[in-house]
Amino acid sequence: MLIDPDHFRERMTPERRERFFASGRADIGWQVDLLRRHYGPFHPRTAIDFGCGVGRLTCPIADIATERVYGVDVASGMREEARRNVPAHVEIVAEIPDVQVDWINSLIVFQHIHPANGVPLLARLLQALAPGGALTLHVGAFKARGAMTMGGVGMDFVSWDGDGLRTLIETPPGSGMMMMYDYDLNQVMALLYTNGIERFTVQHLDHGGHHGACSLAGRRTAEAEGRSRLGGRCCAACLATLTCPAR
Ligand SMILES: C[S@@+](CC[C@H](N)C(=O)[O-])C[C@H]1O[C@@H](n2cnc3c(N)ncnc32)[C@H](O)[C@@H]1O
């Protein structure tokens, strides 16, 4: 996993660089394959890669979305390095742009953002998805026991109230380390739904004991948004939302 842009430059040999960017092409290829299998033809012209890092995923996204791609990253070092790597139709920015795009991607990012910050960011991000657009989103969901600390970093002292663990003392991540947060999937689903995404696919991922979900979703069209105003029915005559052939 890529952590520090300085390490990226220092440690990169041409072979490592090729392997690194090949892993991005493979990850995006996999996501696009899942999207096509579940949602049919996929020809986005515009995209946002949220948490783009140095552009590992942004480059293959830009090969597909050839009109305009925005790579968003909070870290200036990442943005600087990304600008060296991406093609001309990619704009690297610090904040989610005020645009509507056909595809929003964010992989291996939200798990590093505390949910208190990540949930409002996700809500903002989803508003940038155009009707009919697709989402490839990765969020952490739960952990195996051995992954509750990351190499000694994380929860030093916890309390257990019979229901949940609460961190009492936490070692802040040192340079080059990132925390791994889990999201409430009910909350993520509610966010997807309120942003017009009523059908999505959850793909389980195991990131060394950090288990995550990859939700692949097509945004509702204007027609489907009309349906939701019928109180959950798919058409005025129908009471069965799941079985009506009009859906
Ligand atoms: C592990 S890297 C993954 C980069 C890229 N998605 C990939 O798979 O190669 C996580 C990236 O998310 C960025 N990031 C973390 N918090 C962010 C935030 N609040 N807004 C935008 N980017 C953020 C970090 O700066 C870092 O570049």
TrEMBL record:
GO MF, one example: methyltransferase activity
An example of a Pfam family matching this protein is: Methyltransf_11
- GO annotation, biological process: methylation
- Record domain Methyltransferase type: where: 49-135
Q: Does the keyword Methyltransferase apply?
A: yes
For this UniProt record, the keywords arranged alphabetically read as follows:
Methyltransferase, Transferase
Which InterPro entries does this entry report, sorted A to Z? Methyltransf_11
Report the PANTHER family cross-referenced here.
TRANS-ACONITATE 2-METHYLTRANSFERASE-RELATED
Q: What is this protein called?
A: Methyltransferase domain-containing protein
Native source species = Sphingomonas quercus
